[in-house]
Amino acid sequence: MLKKRIIPCLDVNKGRTVKGINFKNLVDAGDPAEQAKIYSEEGADEITFLDITATSDGREAMVNVIKKTSNDCFVPLTVGGGVRSVEDIKKFLLAGADKVSINSAAITNPDLIAQGANIFGNQCIVVAIDAKKNGDKWEVYSHGGRTNSLINAVEWSGFVESKGAGEILLTSMDRDGTKSGFDIELLKQITEKVKIPVVASGGVGKLEHLSEGIILGGASAVLAASVFHFKTFSITEAKNHLQSRKIPVRMDY
Amino acid sequence: MNLVSIVDYGSGNLRSVYNAVKQILNKHTFCSNVKVTNDIKELNKSSHFILPGVGSFKGCLKGFYSNPGLFECLEDNVINKKKAFLGICVGMQMLAQRGFEGGKSKGFGWIDGDVQLFSLKDKSLKIPHIGWNSLSFNNQHPFIGFWKKNSRMNLNKEINAYFVHSYIFKEKLKKNQLLLSNYGHDFTAMVGKENILGTQFHPEKSQKLGLDFLRAFLNWDSRV
User: Which of A117, A175, B70, B166 could form a disulfide with A122 if both were Cys (CB 3.0 to 4.6 A apart)?
Assistant: First the structure.
């Protein structure tokens, strides 16, 4: 049976993890590659790296992070932030990433989704959607949430699927950082709209939120950053929780 | 000194496969060296071959055949000389006679069967099939026996591997179906015919289980 995935996300700034974390027994507490290795040993099903600077300098630093991580971390790696061209996608894939997530560039140049999918296969093209509720509908934001594209998020999800996206990483901007749980209504509308897997992100504060995203929201995977960074709970605890809710998870790690 | 060659024909992520192999090889493994290459001379010196593949069936084959002499070289080493061969993901699908991704096209034809899109009755199941899924042993094969005997894991418990694909290998002969997984219905997770092996899952991304599997492959002498 296909398992539901737990994906820790590392926010990276110039090759260093941003949230200062107090992992024990770490030589370098801010090295994303070392943190990724720890997460994988705790049972992370995938690891996502997000370049929060989204600049060309940040991209070069991120290529090195991915190279270092893929040396001895053998779980799938997704990388996003500032991906603008086929060349950017290729750089990350050759460095050892399995999937590349596109956000702003998908809005300004939707053909990038199709080009990436045609060249590298749609399995490695993830479209990240940052959605915020305005009135009775959700709209897609770009450039780290600063620009409202005025595009309807649910319609956008169907469009990116038709362009060849292999997966959607859906972040609720209303919930991000609030620790009040995923925006289940948004999640539900999008998981019902598309045939491709949807990764839920934004708002995880407690274990129950993870199972809600899967059971109520229909997510194929749940992503969180700060709860894992700050050790609110571990990945192993998250897996045990999902298992207690009868959600299939991978336990042989 | 036995050499494993990761066949470089321009298909994406060879680094992960290389890193995983590198992690395993040491002076005690049957293979003790690894190369990422499309050089015919290097390939002819190899005892083991890994053919990775990401993207579409048609795209991978097109890329593969754009390397002059590569198919003939592999055919000589694998079909005539019976050297150990492992195809991964699309690299496994390329062993089939025909594929339908990106339009109908011919594969190597080393294992009888076609590569077809998942046909799922349950419309709530997402495509691509992405994530960790359990493996179950199906038919016997010398490699499977070798892996079970030498595994550092408990293969009798549930084991999971990482998949990411929309197309599946449908063999004509069920005896070539070595491992199964299930997504809406049973599908082939691993094929095997004599010295020719292929996995739909990505051992290089399947953490402990994947490395255990690759270790068995790199220690396996298909000619014994």
Answer: A117
Residue pair B75/B51 in contact (Cβ under 8 Å)? The answer is no
Reported as a single tens digit per residue, the pLDDT across B86-108 is 999 999 999 999 999 888 999 99
Which phi-psi region, left, alpha or beta, contains residue B35 (left: φ > 0; alpha: ψ -120 to 50)? beta
Q: Do A122 and B15 touch (CB under 8 A)?
A: no
CA distance A87 to A36: 25
Return d(Cα A22, Cα A227) in angstroms, integer: 13
Alpha helices in B120-206 (DSSP H): 142-150
Are A66 and A95 contacting, i.e. CB atoms less than 8 angstroms apart? Answer: yes
Chain A residues at the B interface, defined by Cβ less than 8 Å, are 1-5, 40, 45, 67, 70-72, 74-76, 93-98, 118-124, 166-167, 195-198, 220-221, 250-253
- H or E segment at A135? none
- Phi, psi (degrees; rounded to nearest 5) at B91: -60, -30
Amino acid making up residue A43: G
Q: B2-219 maps to which CATH number?
A: 3.40.50.880
For residue A25, give the amino acid letter. N
Interface predicted TM-score (ipTM) of this complex, two decimals: 0.93
Has residue A20 got a pLDDT over 60? no
Contact assessment for residue B70 and residue B84, using Cβ atoms and an 8 Å cutoff:
no
State the count of interchain CB pairs (< 8 A) between A and B: 111
Known catalytic residue: B204? yes
* DSSP H/E element including A87: helix A86-95
Asked if pLDDT for residue A27 goes beyond 60, the answer is no
Residue B136 has pLDDT above 60, yes or no: yes
Looking at the complex, report in whole angstroms how far the Cα of residue A231 sits from the nearest Cα belonging to chain B. 23
A81 and A62 Cβ atoms separated by less than 8 Å: yes
Inspect the interface and report whether the beta carbons of A74 and B166 lie closer than 8 Å: no
Nearest to B126 among A121, A196, A251 (CB): A196
The torsion angles phi and psi of A129, rounded to 5 degrees, stand at -115, 120
Sequence ranges of the domains in chain B: 2-219
Q: What is the pLDDT, as a whole number, of residue A28?
A: 45
Q: CA-to-CA distance for A173 and B188, rounded, in angstroms?
A: 40
Query: Does the active-site annotation cover B89?
Result: yes
Q: Is B48 a catalytic residue?
A: no
Cα–Cα dist B165/B203, whole Å: 14
CA-CA distances (angstroms) from residue B67 to A151, B37, B70, B94, B204? Answer: 45, 11, 6, 15, 25
Question: For residue B12, what pLDDT is reported?
Answer: 65
Is A22 a residue whose pLDDT tops 60? no
Domains of chain A: 5-244 (3.20.20.70)
A124–B12 CB contact, under 8 Å: yes
